[in-house]
Write a sequence for this structure.
């Protein structure tokens, strides 16, 4: 699946993230990868100054690296998560 760099796609990823146990926050920070995951508190922080493309790439990386209970996902987000699992980002 090709990644779409649009506001709507960003909202889809945010919706998927909302159905996980993690809290997504956009804050300023000096993260080398553009995001930070606090596993003990189940918080994911993305640099708020990123462009839409940067935020989308960061969210995809986060979603691939955290443990997600697929049973808690809605049917549309299960499909999206399955597609994301098979996607490789090309820089």
């Amino acid at each position: 699946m090709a990644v779409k760099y649009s506001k709507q796609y960003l909202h889809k990823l945010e919706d998927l993230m909302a159905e996980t146990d993690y809290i997504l926050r956009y804050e300023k920070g000096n993260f080398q990868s553009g995001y930070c995951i606090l596993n003990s508190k189940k918080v994911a922080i993305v640099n708020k100054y990123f462009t839409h493309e940067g935020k989308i790439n960061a969210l995809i990386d986060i979603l691939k690296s955290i443990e997600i209970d697929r049973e808690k996902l809605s049917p549309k987000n299960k499909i999206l998560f399955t597609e994301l699992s098979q996607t490789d980002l090309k820089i």
Helices lie at 7-18, 52-65, 75-85. DSSP finds three helices and three strands in the chain.
